[in-house]
Amino acid sequence: MANITNVKKLTAVSQEGWQSALTSDITSGATIVTIDDLTGYTDGDTVVMVIDPGNSYKQAFTGVVDIAGSRITGVIWTEGTDVIHN
Fold first, then answer.
1. 74 pairs with which residues across the strands?
2. How far apart are CA 83 and CA 1, in angstroms?
3. Which among 35, 42, 46, 50 has the fewest CB atoms less than 10 Å away?
4. Beta bridge partners of 73
5. What is the pTM of this model?
């Protein structure tokens, strides 16, 4: 079951089928996720995303879009195995 204890805003922007690549590796427990392309999102959007959705080590998180930095900030990991993603 997902852990949403620390999630402050529960209304997320939805973009079904959206996908992009990571700009750099994500360390275990990272609070920032850098992403190649955030097309379709607006600065400040709250999002729910899944890293490596087709693998057994997939992981879901919430965060806030930072368009200028091409990243998701304030990341809270909500479900999955806490591993490094690259």
1. none
2. 18
3. 42
4. 64
5. 0.76
